[in-house]
Amino acid sequence: MIILGLNAYHGNSSACIIVDGKLLTAVEEERFNRIKNWAGLPVQAISHCLNEAKVSIDEVDHIAINRDPKANLSKKALFTLSKRPSFSTIADRLKNASKIVDINSELKAYFKQDINAEFHHIEHHIAHLASTFFVSPYDEAAVLSIDGFGDFVGTMWGLGNGNKIDIKHRTFFPHSLGLFYLAFTQYLGFPNYGDEYKVMGLAPYGEASFMDQMNEVLSIKHSKDKLFELNLSYFVHHSKGVKMSWDKGTPEMGAVYSDKLISLFDSPRKKGEELTQKHKDIAHSLQKKYEEAFFHILNKVYKKTKSTNLALAGGCAMNSVANGKIFDETPFKEVYIQPAAGDAGGAIGAAYYVWNEILKNKRSFVLGNPYLGPHFNESDIEMVINTYKENLADFTIKRIEDQTLLCTKTAKEIADGKVIGWFQGKMEWGSRALGNRSILGDPRRRNMKDILNEKIKRRESFRPFAPSIQVEATSQFFEIEYPAPFMLKVYKVKKSKSEQIPAVTHVDRTGRLQTVSKEINPLYWQLIDEFKKVTGIPILLNTSFNENEPIVCKPEEALDCFLRTSMDIVVLGNYFIKRKQ
Questions:
Q1: In angstroms, rounded to a whole number, what is the distance separating the alpha carbons of residues 442 and 417?
Q2: What are phi and psi of 48, to 5 degrees?
Q3: What is the per-residue pLDDT for 225?
Q4: Is the pLDDT at 95 greater than 70, yes or no?
Q5: Tens of pLDDT along 524-553?
Q6: Which spans in 34-190 are helix H?
Q7: What is the mean pLDDT of residues 314-329?
Q8: 445-475: buried (b, 16+ CB within 10 Å) or exposed (e) per residue?
Q9: In degrees, to the nearest 5, what angle opens at C-alpha 134 toward C-alphas 128 and 139?
Q10: Which end of the chain has fewer CB atoms surrounding its CB within 10 Å, N or C?
Q11: Going from the N-terminus, what domains does the chain have, and what CATH number goes with each?
C-alpha cells in the first residue's frame, strides 16, 4: 500500500511517502527549488518521494492532502452572511481552494501519467493532529493543534487513542493565537512569512510593560465553548481581508492589524529600523501573553482528557520557548512534537490519517529519526568536488575514511575556533538543522556568535544559536533533562554552567537545545564526543547550513555556501576541505 502525503498551495509545501505504514521519506519543496517557505504544488518533492519508493505516480494507491475546502462549510456560510467580509477576502480563498481541488489534473499534467490513486482531502487541523499523534510513541494522548488558520479553524484539540482521534473542540475563524502573534510580528517590522521566531528571540531583551494593551487585544475565556478571543477591532482579516499570495514563490501576506492597534501602540517599526527598548518590551509582552493563553488551553485540555501524554502540532508548536515550560506550567508528563510541526508536517498527518483512521490499520511507526531527506553517497560527493576543482585551488582536500579520525580532526579544529560546515547522511525533516546539514562552532567562545554572523549568517545580532548536546549529559547543563531531539524546546541553562557555554546561552540564560543520541545519529554524537575529549564540554554550537536561503540539500549547494562565505572548513561525507590560509 503506497500513500503520498502532500502539503500543497500553502507555505512550506512538502511531500512524503508511506509504504505499508512506514514513512520512507519526507521533504519540503524549498530544499529543491531554493525558495524559502515556497508555496505551491511540491512537484520536485513528490518526484523525490517516488524515486525513494521506486515507483511511478500511477502506482500510488492513495494521495492525501492536508486541506479540505469542504470542511466547516456551515460555519463559513454563517460568517459570510453575518459579517459580510470584503469580496477580495472571499475571492482569494475561493481561488486557493480551487487549486487544492484541482491537484489531480495538475499532477497528471506534470508527470504526464494517469493518476490512479484515490484522493483524500483531510481537514487542515486534523492533519496536524494526525501528524503528531499517529507517529508518536503514545497509545493514548491529548492532542492539540494551534496555528494561524486552516480550513476556517485556528485551534483544535481532542483525544488520540490507538488508530483514532476524537475531536473535542474547534476554535473557528476569525479567532486565532497564531494570527495574534503574526500581527505583532508584522507590527515589529518583521514582515516575511515565518518571521515569528525572530520575535521570540527578541523577547528576552524586553520587559512586560505592555501587558495592559495585550490584555485589551486578546482575552482568555473560561466558558465551556471558548478558549480565548481576539478583540477584532484591532484586526482586519475578518472584515477588509488580507492580501495573500500562495501560488508561486515565497508566501506573502498583507498586514493583519488595524489602525486601532497602531493607535494603541503608536507607529509600527519599519523593516530594518533600529530596534528600541519599546520594541523589545512589546516582544516580551507578546510572548508572555501568548504563553498565558497557551497554558490556559493546555490545562483545559488536560482537565478534559485526563491524559498526561501530549502530542502537539501546528505552527505555534514551533514556539520552543513556550514548549520548554510545559512541564512547569501544566500536569503533562510526556510531550511529543514531530520535527516539522508546522504546515510542512501536514503532509505526514494527511497520509497517516488515511493509513490509520480511514483504512483502519494499526499503528506501527514512530517518528524518532528526523533524517528523512535526500542522501548523497561518496561517489556523488566526489563527482561534485571534481567539478569544483578550479574553485578549490586554494584549499586542501583530504579524504578521511576512518570515522574516528574524521571526527577527531574536525573536533580539534572547532576547539581551535574554526567554523565548520558539516554535511552528512540524509537531510533533516523540518526547519531545524540537526547535525546533518549544520554549521558548527565552539560554544565556549563568547565571540562565536559575532564570528558566525560576520563570516556567514549575517543575521540579527539578538538571535541565539543552538546547543547540540549528548543526550546523556543534558542534566549536567540544563535544569530540565527531558530529551529535545528536534530542537523544539528551550530550557534554562544551569547557573553553574552558563559561563562555560556563553555562545549558546541566550540573554535570559536559556538554550534551544538539541539532544543527540548515539542510536539515532552515531556520527554526530561521536563528533560531539571527540570535542568533549578535547575540551571537557559535550556540546557543539549548531546552526543551519545556509546563508539567507533554505538549508542546503545537495553537496554542490554546500560547496557554493562554503565558497561565498568565510567558513573555514567544510566536511562533505569523508572529504575534509580546508582553506590554505
A1: 6
A2: -60, -45
A3: 86
A4: no
A5: 999 999 999 999 999 999 999 999 899 999
A6: 43-53, 73-83, 87-101, 103-111, 124-133, 177-187
A7: 98
A8: beebbebbbebbbebeebbbbbbbbbbebbe
A9: 130
A10: C
A11: 2-135+345-358 (3.30.420.40), 145-340 (3.30.420.40), 378-579 (3.90.870.20)
Half-sphere exposure of 172 (CA within 13 A, CB side): 10
**Residue 483 and residue 490: Cα distance in Å, rounded?**
11
Would you state the pLDDT for residue 436? 98
Q: How far apart are CA 209 and CA 282, in angstroms?
A: 7
Q: Which carries the bigger pLDDT value, residue 374 or residue 87?
A: 374
Q: Phi first, then psi: what are they for 218, rounded to 5°?
A: -135, 130
Q: Which three cell numbers stand for residue 386?
A: 571534481
What residues pair up with 164 in beta bridges, in sequence order? 161
Per-residue pLDDT reduced to its tens digit, 21-49: 999 999 999 999 999 999 999 999 999 99
- Give residue 560's identity as a one-letter amino acid code: D
pTM over 0.90: yes
Copy the grid coordinates of residue 319: 514556539
13 touches 32 (CB < 8 A): no
Q: What confidence score (pLDDT) does residue 53 get?
A: 98
- Kindly state the cell numbers that stand for 403: 570515522
* CA-closest candidate to residue 100, choices 150, 14, 12, 41: 41
